[in-house]
Design brief:
single chain, 2 domains, Rossmann fold, alpha/beta
């Protein structure tokens, strides 16, 4: 877990100080979060989310009663809900009639108040407006850096949809078991996630759905990735050989004008020897769309299972 700094850290220490158990009104319950304990609705019906990609999107994916969200501004296009727009589709998001609360950093407190939520979910970097939001509706702060399913389960608990989460996870485990059977011996296949930018190589472990599926199927990883629990950013491209694998996965972000051809050309200029990796030479480099496969949704998990099964099942990497 990344360390907390400055005012945010001080605020969490203050709010996390042990206190008397809350006595909540009928229809409310005590809920523990990153800033202490708050009485929230047992069955919230008007959830306002102050982070789109890792709060709004998983809530929508699980069928929670999220009705208002922050969004992003797209140059030359409509505002969009990061994650949901790509994973669930623009039309699906539009059909929900979500109230647009504007940007996320900082949140627009007046817009949130005007929406009239019965529960507000925020992230830690937004802690400066917590007191103001608590006067609008019960407000909870999502902990940072939780493992994938802890992240999803926390949101499902807050939204009162734990049964839906449990059912989705059980279905996911069934799909994982089927994928393992098709692949045969996943532990004998080295799957490497490989990304590079102009400041060097980078790798974030436990990176959303794609990494969860790699781990749950049980693929092997390059030693560098298996032994670096915190990940790295800006590693020298001279160490690129340590990213080699039987199957290599590289990400693109079309929203940021990234394509396979553009990144390949960039890498040719930065480190042309990337093409000498065994996984690349044998045609086993595959590209995935970052905003979809890294998402915190069961849809992202299922798409990741599909991808990894297609590129590994029935193939001999010896």
């Amino acid at each position: 877990m990344k360390p907390l700094y400055g005012a945010f850290a001080a605020a969490l220490v203050l709010f996390a100080t042990p206190a008397l158990a809350l006595d909540c009104d009928v229809g409310m319950r005590a809920f523990t979060h990153a800033a202490g304990e708050t009485c929230i609705p047992e069955n919230p019906q008007r959830i306002a989310s102050l982070r789109d990609d890792d709060v709004t999107t998983p809530l929508m994916d699980m069928g929670a009663a999220v009705f208002a969200t922050v969004s992003r501004e797209a140059e030359g296009g409509p505002r969009w809900v990061r994650g949901a727009a790509d994973i669930l589709g623009y039309a699906s998001v539009a059909d929900t009639g979500l109230i647009d609360l504007g940007g996320h950093n900082p949140p627009d407190v007046e817009a949130v108040a005007a929406a009239g939520p019965d529960l507000i979910i925020m992230r830690g970097y937004q802690i400066d407006v917590l007191d103001q939001l608590q006067t609008v509706a019960p407000t909870i702060v999502m902990p940072d850096d939780m493992p994938f399913f802890d992240h999803m389960a926390w949101l499902a608990d807050a939204a009162g949809i734990q049964d839906r989460f449990d059912a989705e996870r059980a279905a996911y485990q069934t799909r994982i078991a089927a994928a393992k059977q098709r692949i045969g011996d996943p532990g004998a296949i080295v799957v490497s996630r490989f990304d590079m930018w102009d400041d060097g190589l980078w790798y974030y472990p436990n990176w959303g759905a794609i990494d969860q599926v790699i781990n749950d199927i049980g693929f092997a990883k390059p030693a560098l990735q298996a032994e670096e629990p915190e990940g790295f950013n800006g590693m020298s491209v001279e160490r690129i050989q340590e990213f080699d694998g039987d199957v290599m996965l590289a990400s693109i972000a079309p929203r940021w004008d990234q394509t396979e051809a553009m990144l390949s050309a960039q890498w040719d200029g930065l480190a042309p020897f990337w093409r000498d990796l065994d996984g690349v030479r044998t045609g086993n480099l595959f590209w995935y769309e970052r905003d979809i496969m890294v998402g915190y949704t069961f849809e992202s998990l299922n798409r990741s299972i599909d991808l990894l099964t297609v590129v590994t099942a029935g193939r001999d990497f010896n």
